[in-house]
């Protein structure tokens, strides 16, 4: 069994796969008579031929070591995950390698970090670590098929940092 | 000074103004090999002539009684507020009355509740109650003017439930 080691989620490391939505640095604009900072336009939302919708995922807890045996991608749109309960997510992503996932990279999100996975990027399923978590999801809505799954011939075990 | 009394935020009471995004009832679909419930397509996202973006608002705490003296609306799109820190929001909304806000209704959100204010609906600014709060915001992005403000001639004081 090949192992992968979790890394802290950063915007730079995640850039090939999507966006990290977080308060970093000064806000782009101060609004509401000085009472609110707006960190503006942090994610590339792409709903392709559908419309953009907001859903809510209620997911059971995962633990380490975490077996990564399935990756999926959405050919028609991006998908953002916004944690309501500050539960960190195991974020598994991979470059495409001839229509299959290449070698994955695995990150652990921190409280306050949301992610937006770009259209057609291979990723693991939503995996809250250590506790159940609810996540608001912003993604493509339509009746078109928008899920491609790939079961890994050689699964990985994800280990702690 | 006229007073308004906060009511608990419910989907039914908020329906004339927008959507409450919350886990209510059974999920619409079970995904990820039984590990996740999807509550599907809970909000009408409408970005009009722009695109839909994701931003982050970092807002200072408000207290009761809360002075409601300004309402605003966005003619080009809906605006969703998703709390990252479980801080309740004072949600002030009003029907339109000849191009101005009519009598407001005021709600207090509960932890786990997000809201989506529909396009062109009068509302107060983001107002976390009792603590600062960060909120992921899903709204219209463009260079077009998308803010109409109205200062109330007779402000309201919002009181506890």
From TrEMBL, chains A, B:
Record-linked Gene3D superfamilies: Ureidoglycolate hydrolase
Which transformation does this protein catalyse, written as a reaction?
Answer: (S)-ureidoglycolate = urea + glyoxylate
GO MF assignments:
ureidoglycolate hydrolase activity; ureidoglycolate lyase activity
What EC identifiers does the entry list? 3.5.1.116
A biological-process GO annotation = purine nucleobase metabolic process
Query: What is this protein's record name?
Result: Ureidoglycolate hydrolase
- Pfam families cross-referenced by the UniProt entry: Ureidogly_lyase (PF04115)
Assembly information from the UniProt record: Homodimer.
Kindly state which keywords UniProt assigns to this record, in alphabetical order. Hydrolase, Lyase, Purine metabolism
Q: What class does this enzyme belong to in the EC scheme?
A: hydrolase
Top-level taxon: Bacteria
Q: Does the keyword Isomerase apply?
A: no
Gene name linked to the record: allA_2
């Amino acid at each position: 069994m090949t192992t992968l080691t979790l890394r802290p989620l950063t915007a730079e490391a995640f850039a090939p796969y999507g966006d990290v939505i977080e308060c970093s640095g000064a806000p782009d604009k101060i609004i509401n008579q000085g009472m609110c900072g707006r960190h503006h336009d942090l994610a590339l939302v792409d709903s392709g031929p559908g419309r953009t919708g907001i859903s809510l995922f209620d997911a059971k807890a995962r633990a380490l070591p975490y077996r990564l045996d399935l990756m999926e991608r959405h050919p028609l749109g991006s998908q953002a995950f916004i944690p309501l309960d500050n539960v960190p997510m195991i974020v598994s992503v991979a470059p495409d390698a001839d229509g299959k996932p290449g070698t994955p990279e695995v990150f652990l999100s921190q409280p306050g970090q949301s992610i937006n996975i770009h259209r057609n990027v291979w990723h693991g399923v939503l995996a809250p670590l250590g506790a159940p978590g609810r996540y608001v999801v912003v993604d493509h809505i339509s009746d078109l098929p928008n899920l491609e799954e790939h079961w890994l011939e050689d699964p990985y075990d994800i280990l702690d940092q």
